[in-house]
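Thread: Newbie trying to understand structure tokens

Hi all, I'm a second-year student working on a class project, and my supervisor (Dr. K.) asked me to get a predicted structure for one chain before our next meeting. I've only ever worked with sequences, so writing a 3D structure as a token string is new to me. If someone could post the tokens and maybe explain what I'm looking at, I'd be very grateful. Here's the chain:
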Amino acid sequence: MEPSKEATRKDYIERMLKVFSYIQRHLDEDVCLETLAQEACFSPYHFHRIFRGIVGESVKEHIRRIKLERAAARLKQTNHPIIRIALEAGYEAHEAFSRAFRQRFKMSPTQYRAANQPFNGSPAAVHYTPDGEIKKFNPWKQETDPMKAQIVEIQPITVAFVRHVGPYKECGKAWERLCAWAGPKGYLQPGVQFIGLCYDDPEVTPPDKIRYDACLTVGADCKPDGPVGIQTIEGGLYVRATHEGSYNKLYETYADLCGRWIAQNNLEIRSLPSFEVYLNDPNSTPEAELLTDIHVPVERK
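---
Reply by user tm_fold:
Sure, no problem. This is what the structure looks like when written as tokens:
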């Protein structure tokens, strides 16, 4: 019997999720198309067409964009020399990096770094979105009420996940799909953790390109199933802080954590996605009482 269209679609999505995870884990390496095709068990001849059809951009464009957006985050969050950031983004010359960066963000790397630092003696930071909108946020405003953050050692976490691409505020459908899959299988047991894996900075990445994984913890024997993939959140050092209130205000806690607390504690952010652990149910908890543990991967200087 030939597989149904739905079964074929689920199979393609399952295989592409492996590709997305592979790219993220090997972002600092030269990833070739043949390797990705092998990871997904597709013919190299057809793989690039399949990838573009599903993702909307070529493999090369996809990796270049992610690296450039990561470079923008590093300009904001670190004092690394620009040439080092350029090399990490895959550019061998400062000029080529600056040209590509200006084309993407409408300003040079130096201008972007300056625009996202304190200015005119004021502690307020200004952030430029990809659309040119200016946002201001003061990460030092809570000096009289210090953030309660701590450095923790996290063990690797195995999760089942559904990938969402688009604005963070629209990730609800990914959660619905994940829970609809997990419920009948008995995975929604007491003690399960609901985790959001956040790959992109919404002030850097265009809204329609933002990547987010809705995750729940599972055992090591759990298998991928169509749009539901399996991955391991990398362990190691993280800074953890609890955000109280609306998910729409998470960016404020991130800004305070990344812009002040981490720098003041002689830490650097690692090249891994942050993740969020949702401590109560948004469907039954008043918005002001929502609790979210934010985890930012770090290393000591």
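A couple of things are worth pointing out once you decode it. The radius of gyration is 20 Å. The chain has a mean pLDDT of 84. Feel free to ask follow-ups in this thread.
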